Amino acid sequence: MNTILTSLKGKDLLTLVDLSSEEIHHLLTLASELKQKQLSKEAYKPLTGKTLAMIFEKPSTRTRVSFEVGMAQLGGHALYLNSNDLQLGRGETIADTARVLSQYVDAIMIRTFAHSKIEELAQYASVPVINGLTDDDHPCQALADLLTIYEVKKKLKGIKLVYVGDGNNVAHALMIAAAKVGMDCVVACPVGYEPKGEYVNAALLAAEQTGATVKVTHDPVEAVQDADVIYTDVWTSMGQEQESKQRLAVFQPFQVNEQLVEQAKEDYMFLHCLPAHRGEEVTAGVIDSTHSYVFEQAGNRLHVQKAILTSLLS
Ligand code: CP
Ligand code: NVA
Q: Nearest 5°: CA angle at 107, between 101 and 110?
């Protein structure tokens, strides 16, 4: 397999801001190759004898299962570690946890709250650290999103991607991913729920290199005009449960429904990182329509995780 890029070996994957466009394209190509191998039942076990520790401070279905199955398919082993069952949950520091786990395992994946926590983990770990979602970022998700768009649209450059909803972790990662591959990205969100300035600026900087455009607006109808891809995510992310009532009201005009998608291109595709709340951020009529690729998207998490693991570890 000649698409393994040595520049990623031994590195952390905390945010796509740190990856070059070339590295992103290589991960996507490798993910496609690994997907083909899996579909043709060809065994490929470059991670035999390697172990991935997976720390979860928030729930997960897709990230947990795709990393665990991915490690198994690559010949390695994954450990599911719920933070409440670790000494981390009783006050052992993240720095000590990083140094201890580095004695046993070959990489650490973590899903946590503050992004600064994963940065601290990466600082103290001597093995690669992978972001399985923080309050600010979700890089593995965005890579799977790019792969799904590429499979359907056969290109990334010049595609118009419109994210409608909360300027959250998923929106941040998508903006960076889109800008780095030359996709035009519009984020339509309520006032006060914009993506963080540091992510917008990083996306704008990346877009300068690729010719992409990046825009944040508060008008969802105008945003989705001629969209190739419409993407949304939950209105209340994990850790924000106390705001959910207020968010339900604020985000109502940003629901992706049959009326809104009429503004998009006829062959638009709908994406959602999942889990979805039908009747809130998206109607069943949209997410369960033939325009929706959310299950292919979820499936691609597996192939992308395998590409990430192979690139960082083999
Ligand atoms: N999209 C995603 O990360 O799903 P999980 O929360 O189930 O891992
Ligand atoms: N924004 C969501 C994504 C879930 C995969 C959250 O953080 O809860």
A: 80
**Residue for token pair 């949209």:** 286
Ligand 2 centroid distance, CA of 300 (Å): 17
Q: State whether 131 and 271 are in the same domain.
A: no
pLDDT digits 0-9 by tens, 112-128: 999 999 999 999 999 99
CATH number for position 201: 3.40.50.1370
Confirm or reject: Cβ of 170 under 6 Å from ligand 2: yes
The predicted pLDDT at position 3 comes to 62
Minimum CA distance residue for ligand 1 atom 1: 273
Render 20-69 in DSSP notation, one character per residue: -HHHHHHHHHHHHHHHHHHHTT----TTTT-EEEEEESS--SHHHHHHHH
Does any domain span residue 56?
yes
Q: 129 and 152 in one domain? A: no
Cα separation, 151 vs 156, in Å, equals 10
Contacts of 314 (CB under 8 A, 6+ apart): 4, 9, 46, 47
Domain hosting 197: range is 141-297
192, 107: one domain:
no
Q: What is the mean pLDDT of residues 221-246?
A: 98
User: 162 and 74, same structural domain?
Assistant: no
Instruction: Please compute Rg for the chain using Cα positions.
Output: 19
pLDDT at 5 over 80: no
Ligand 2 atom 7: residue of nearest CA: 237
Q: Confidence band (pLDDT; 50, 70, 90) for 241?
A: very high
Q: Is residue 1 assigned to a domain? A: no
| Same domain for 158 and 118 | no
